[in-house]
Design a protein that fits this description.
Blueprint lengths: L16 H7 L4 H7 L9 H10 L2 H8 L3 H11 L8 H4 L21 E4 H6 L4 H11 L5 E6 L4 H9 L4 E6 L2 E10 L1
Parallel strand pairs: 1-2
Antiparallel strand pairs: 2-4, 3-4
Helix pairs in contact: 1-3
Amino acid sequence: MTMNKPILLEITSQTKLFDVLEAFPELEEQIIKIAPPFKNLRNPVLRKTVGKLSTIEKVAEVGGMSVTNLVNTLRRAVGQAELTDLPAEQFQISVPHEMNDPEWITGEPTITINGDEMLARGEVPLGVINDHLREFLEGGFLLLVTAFLPTPIVDAMQKQGRMVYSKAHPLDENKFLTFIRG
């Protein structure tokens, strides 16, 4: 019979690496295997500096792994329930087309992500957006719905050379719609 550990720290994409390793030192080798550049974590001084700056999302990025997969791998290893991003990705919203909208955002988005819901769970939508955009066929687009203009995501997508268009929802001034072409 296995005993579940009491939850010392809930692992999410935004959890600091230092905190994860303090609460679960047994994860050190697994993290280094996933992202070899983090082997310097064995040095106590570097662990305190790099570990306090890096989130699990950053480890996933460096390791070339989906953020959700890494979070769930670590959560399974310490007996925590897996997180899912399905509710955010099954989000549906009606988007009336307006005259000033670019032509490429007509039709239905390939996927719609509820960014507010993800943020409320402690997740950052950028990793999920990048994961989905890698799978898109030419011409598809993703719709991110938030309560604010997601400037960091817009900037990141533009740096990747992606077409991005943001606007306030024409029927709900409390929602911003950000369209990202695959």
